[in-house]
Amino acid sequence: MDLFSRSWTALREAPADTAPTMDAVTYWQLAEPPTGEDPLDALIPRLAAAYGEPRRLRFHFDDVGSAAGRAAVLADPAARVSTRDEVLTVGDYLSAYVLEWSLHHLDLIAHLPSAAQPPAETLAAARALLEKRAGTAFPASFSDADALRVGTGRRTPTAAETAAPGDSRHPARSQPPPGARGRRCRQTA
Question: Is-above-0.90 flag for pTM?
Fold first, then answer.
């Protein structure tokens, strides 16, 4: 009971009355892929393995996602929240999670070709946010899902994608912008 009380108190104190210090784009920090040297590098694989079976992970997502969805509908998008000594509007915080959930959805179905894709509108919004963070647009020939996978280092661009005509600054070129190949976006919170 004590832990619940402490977590509930912290959650109630999350609203902030100071000016935002970040937005949905700057919430994401560019980071190198894990090297294995940091003990936290093993956290995500261990958490994923803890579920044991996909149905348990789905139950967790359904439970947490439903609660988060209800809270998001009720929240004032202009309200401010604090996390890790940064302040964002609720709208920016929720927008940042469109990228987060879209990437996780793509990760979960990466080897399941018949699985349902994330909604097209969320992939488009996630792509737009990643392009803003990277400071450059992906070629129009990239699907939104492919732009997200290449732009976050989840896969390397194909030879055809690298040779595609268009802006030589796009992330499939030999000189990718920060956040492209070999890097992953990581939340600051």
Answer: no
